[in-house]
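Entry 14: structure prediction run for Coiled-coil domain containing 103. Input pasted below.
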Amino acid sequence: MERNDIINFKALEKELQAALTADEKYKRENAAKLRAVEQRVASYEEFRGIVLASHLKPLERKDKMGGKRTVPWNCHTIQGRTFQDVATEISPEKAPLQPETSADFYRDWRRHLPSGPERYQALLQLGGPRLGCLFQTDVGFGLLGELLVALADHVGPADRAAVLGILCSLASTGRFTLNLSLLSRAERESCKGLFQKLQAMGNPRSVKEGLSWEEQGLEEQSGGLQEEERLLQELLE
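Run finished. Output tokens:
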């Protein structure tokens, strides 16, 4: 048999493996597209995010347990070296929320922010302008109520301006009026409570003296507080 007739089995194996990988990727992404259609996602960004994240797998119970773990930070650089030489400790502390799309936000909001305080801090960290960009098209069904509840349950006097900025950005998103009409009764009550708290924070002296809401509205405001009151009135309208 001549040299040219020799079969390169290694090349065939690589080619077969590449074909299997491509086929698996196609099936995985196609299934993700079907799920996205069934869920009736609100925008193309959410649809695209679901497809791009189709390779991710849910964490197992052992992955969620606390404590530190040591893993190689780059598995491609450990040839000829021991695991201890390249292992690095990973802290269980959560990294800051850095979503690139509304789908990223929705995924992280559901998976990594289970508690109210965590959600509230994440909203403050992102801020109104960033949230406005993420949800320019639409906040998404059911999400607006959760955002309002997180703000209402944990808003503090020091965060008043930041929360007003977040509310203004959310109010400027697409289909906001529709999403507002879809709030549940509990979410509407939380929203009402949020605005009552924001009003009270605008005049600490009135709250201390036990004045009514109408009397608080007559109190004079100054400086940055006037701007906050203007934003609050716009949101109330």
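Notes: The first strand starts at residue 69 and ends at 72. Will compare against the previous run tomorrow.
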